[in-house]
């Protein structure tokens, strides 16, 4: 099955907006493909106001969140995978949800000066 987190994220976003509150998302910036203004990062996370009044062109699908916003007066495109969102909550009362951000393993690089292990080639043998 596909992950349920993007669906829950959308549901909480709609619920917060429908109740006239301000949705904030906490994004793990160490997750791959996260594009956010780094000058506002604190402890590897950024808290973003994703309300319609703060964002232009807000799009959220089953994989990505993307929008444009101004940071210190400068426009910027912000985008990140849904699975990089650690929480969504209403600014006014804290109602929302926390999510587990999956850990990602960096690509493994071969160790230097380590001989290559020979691989056993497949073969056929006659069995009587």
3D architecture notes:
It is a single chain. This protein has 128 residues and is mainly β. 11% of the residues lie in helices and 32% in strands. It has one helix at residues 5-18; strands at residues 23-28, 45-49, 56-60, 64-71, 74-81, 85-90, 96-98. Mean pLDDT is 86; it is low at 105-112.
In short:
The chain contains one helix and seven strands.
Question: Which characteristics define this entry?
Answer:
single chain, 128 residues, mainly beta, 4-stranded antiparallel β-sheet, 3-stranded antiparallel β-sheet
Order of helices and strands: HEEEEEEE
Task: Output the strand order for the largest sheet.
Answer: 2-1-6-7
What do the pLDDT scores average to? 86
Q: How many helices? A: 1
Strand content: 25-35%
In this structure, how is the largest beta sheet organized? 4 strands, antiparallel
- Beta-strand segment tally: 7
Tell me the Rg in angstroms.
22 Å
Question: Based on helices, strands and strand pairing, what is the structural class?
Answer: mainly beta
Helix content range of the residues, please?
Answer: 10-25%
Shape annotation: globular
> How far is the N terminus from the C terminus?
47 Å
Poorly predicted runs: 105-112
Layout of SSEs?
Blueprint: H1 5-18, E1 23-28, E2 45-49, E3 56-60, E4 64-71, E5 74-81, E6 85-90, E7 96-98
Antiparallel strand pairs: 1-2, 1-6, 3-4, 4-5, 6-7
